[in-house]
Every structure is written in C-alpha cells, then in structure tokens.
Design a protein that fits this description.
Elements (H helix, E strand, L loop, with lengths): L2 E3 L5 H7 L4 E3 H4 L7 E6 L5 H12 L6 E6 L11 H7 E2 L1 H4 L4 E6 L15 H14 E7 L1 H11 L4 E15 L13 E11 L2 H5 L4 E7 L3 E7 L4 E4 L9 H11 L25 H17 L12
Helix pairs in contact: 1-3
Length: about 300
C-alpha cells in the first residue's frame, strides 16, 4: 500500500522512479479506506531532500498513510523557498486541533546549541506536549531524539570530542520487541552528530527501554515500554551519498573533518560507498508503522489520549 502525498510534491517523481509505492492525493480521494494519518515535523534545512528520504522509508510498509508536513513558523528557513513551504507545509497552529496516528520529528543541525538557545525551542516544546495527547506514537530522529529525551525526561546531551560521523555496527538488545522484529543481531546505521546522550542517563529513566546500542556510537534506539515514544540517535533514513555530501561540503569549506568511518571502500572518498544500511532503515520504519502505530492506534482518533 502506498504513502499518500500531494500531487505536485517534488519527491513524487524520484520515488516513483525508484519503484516506491506512492499515491497522489487526487487518486487517493476515490478510495474508501481508513489510512494512517502521519505528520512529519521536518527540521532539516534541506527539506526537499529530507522529504524524499522520509517518504522512501515510510513507503516500505503495506499500510496506506496520509503524510502531512509541518514546519516551525518561528524559524526562517534559508534553504527552502517560501513557495515550497506555503504549498506543502503547515504550521503548528494549523494542526493543533487535529489528531494523528504517528509523528516523525527529524534531526536538525543545531545540536551544538543549548536547547533553550534554539530559536524555535518554545514552539518545538509545544509540539512535544501536543504529541503526548494528539499523537499515538512519535518517532524522534537524531537531534529530534535528543530534544525529546530532554523535554520529556530531562536527559541532557553532551558535546563530543570529535564528530560521530559514519557507519557503525549496532547490537539488537531485545529481538522480541515489536520495533526490532526481523532485525539482525548486529546491523549498520549512519550517524552524523556533534553531541550525544549517555546510555547511563537513559537507563535511569524507568519508563524507557534501551533497544539497540553501539560500542562506538553508544545509544542508538530507546523507547517507552508502550512504544508511544521512540528515540533513534542516528539517521537510518540517509541515502547512499548523504554522508559523502556532508563530508564534501565541509571539505569545501576548509573545515577539519574526518572521513566518515566505515563508509568509503578502502577509506577512499573517490570510491562510491555501498548502501549497507537500507534494509535496516526500511524495516525500522515498517515495524514502527505496523506494530507501534497500526496495531495499537484507536480506529477513531477522537478517543486518543496521552
């Protein structure tokens, strides 16, 4: 079953070329089905690229989903046109009265700032509070995971001595958990961040269960026991060349940046990296939609409560 998207969304053409099952809204309105209502709070500056990445992994489930994009109205987007935002995005005030089966909160390149110094932090706190009562399950990604852990549980983030950058092996800790159903015991996932949360801080929170960790990258997946809040510290949705693009960008700026770990064949940036984490990314999002959202969310969202 497809992801339902606006007719003219730029990601549609590329996803269709990749044989990802998407359905344009003009076709979907003729179907009589209770689709999942998924909101995506896109905090990344490269919004069009992130739209494609997130829709690609959401499209790996057999469930039909109606995806709505949200942006922070208290932040001025510098890398996305106002026309694109006006056409495809809604502000928080536009959706506060609505309820959703699921919410994805992306990462953002603001991790070196204290949370309270991020210009849209008060608005993001409103989103996080709203998600408690108006969303069945929320998937927090990278900085979005750090922000959620801090807001809901007071878990701090810490600066890293060097950027956590590259592909890292992770261990699945509870393969009986629905979120990890079908996972390998060891799998690869990308990270790209200057800060991190400490495993011991998360383990102190009684509501949370640690589901996947890495010897090199630390905590990867934690979730509440009811899977209503899920925190992923990496970027499973990244494309094959996203880490390369970030590396090339920083090199061009003259920044001191190490090559992404375990990424380029022979550690040679001239060679194209294999896409070795795709299966994990698709399975993670499919499990979230199938087992954390679809099987648990009320049929009538009016009955949803925190």
């Amino acid at each position: 079953m497809p992801v339902r998207i606006p007719d003219d969304l730029p990601a549609a053409r590329q996803l269709e070329e990749e044989n990802i099952f998407v359905m344009r809204k003009s076709r979907a309105v003729h179907q009589d089905i209770r689709e999942l209502r998924i909101a995506v709070l896109n905090l990344m500056p490269t919004k069009v690229t992130t739209e494609t990445q997130v829709l690609r992994v959401l499209g790996s489930s057999p469930l039909q989903t109606d995806v709505r994009f949200i942006h922070m109205t208290t932040h001025e987007a510098r890398n996305t046109s106002s026309e694109h935002l006006d056409q495809f995005y809604e502000g928080l005030d536009d959706v506060l009265h609505e309820r959703f089966d699921g919410l994805v909160i992306t990462g953002a390149p603001v991790e070196t700032l204290p949370f309270e110094e991020v210009d849209y932090w008060p608005e993001l706190e409103r989103v996080l509070d709203w998600s408690t009562t108006n969303v069945w399950s929320t998937l927090h990604i990278c900085w979005g995971a750090q922000a959620g852990l801090y807001h809901h549980y007071g878990v701090p983030k810490y600066p890293l001595s060097e950027k956590m950058f590259g592909l890292f092996h992770h261990n699945s800790l509870d393969l009986r958990n629905p979120l990890l159903r079908g996972f390998d015991e060891v799998f690869l996932a990308p990270h790209s961040r200057h800060t991190g949360v400490r495993l011991e801080d998360v383990e102190k929170v009684a509501e949370l269960e640690v589901l996947a960790t890495s010897e090199a990258a630390g905590l990867y997946i934690a979730a509440t026991k009811d899977l209503r809040r899920i925190f992923v510290t990496g970027h499973p949705e990244y494309d094959r060349l996203t880490l390369k693009a970030e590396y090339d960008r920083d090199v061009a700026k003259g920044l001191a940046i190490a090559k992404p770990a375990n990424y380029f064949p022979g550690d040679d940036p001239r060679r194209e990296p294999p896409h070795t984490w795709r299966a994990h990314a698709h399975l993670l999002y499919a499990n979230w939609l199938n087992y954390c959202v679809y099987e648990e969310t009320p049929y009538d969202l009016a009955g949803l409560s925190g």
